[in-house]
Amino acid sequence: MSRAVRALTRAALIGAAGGLRSTWGAAALSWTAGSATGPPGEPPWLARPAVRGLLAAAAAGEFVADKNPATPSRLRPGGLVPRLAFGGLTGVAVALRDDPLASPTDPETPLSPVAGAVGAGAALAAALAGARWRTTGPRRRPSVAPVAAAVEDLVAAALALAACALCTPGAPERHSGPDEETARPESGDGAPGDVAG
């Protein structure tokens, strides 16, 4: 799988998670960030304890509010706009994670705008699909509403974790530069330390 396809797949997965549960993708990114400095290309503040706590609290609050029948539809502006925003932002962040070549400063492959669009588009599609899922069956049989909500929770969590699992933070591959090549000791005849007898 090419780097671009892999990055855009991550963006689609995490955007879809945000379409189902707006903050869950961001929370998954934060809690799987490697350290306070973050992997190359990733916003360094994602791994800060305060950010992790805030996003965890938001995800938990959304989990509870989603089960309340009085909660407005996610397709209203107050529910849809945050989903699109989180989908776009997390799409960019996950595409950059552990992949410094995907940085917008790279003139050859500016993936960030595309990843953001893919994430927002996936969030919209998932929001529409989730709303239909939650209204079609439960409207006929209200007793299945908790089951439908639980299934959607599992799908949202699986999408977010799958996106993060595809890009577990790690050390970037180190390539030798021209200076390192010239400084590398020679081998064979004439290597430093060899003394003619």
Overall description:
By secondary structure, this protein is mainly α. It has one domain (3-183). Helices cover 61% and strands 0% of the residues. It has helices at residues 3-20, 24-31, 49-66, 77-96, 111-140, 145-165, 178-183. Helix 2 packs across helix 6. The protein starts with a helix and ends in a 14-residue tail after the last helix.
Topology of this protein?
Blueprint: H1 3-20, H2 24-31, H3 49-66, H4 77-96, H5 111-140, H6 145-165, H7 178-183
Helix pairs in contact: 1-4, 1-5, 1-6, 2-3, 2-6, 4-5, 5-6
Descriptors:
single chain, 61% helix, membrane, mainly alpha, DUF4126 family protein, disordered C terminus, 197 residues, transmembrane helix, 0% strand, DUF4126, transmembrane, 7 helices
Give the helix/strand class: mainly alpha
Q: How does the overall form come out from the CA principal axes?
A: globular
Distance between the termini: 55 Å
Q: Count the strands?
A: 0
Mean pLDDT: 79
Quote the beta fraction. under 5%
How much helicity do the residues have? 55-70%
Total helical elements:
7
Main sheet specs = none
The ordered string of helix (H) and strand (E) elements is HHHHHHH
Indicate the radius of gyration in whole angstroms.
Answer: 22 Å
Low-confidence regions: 101-108, 168-184, 191-197
Number of domain modules:
1
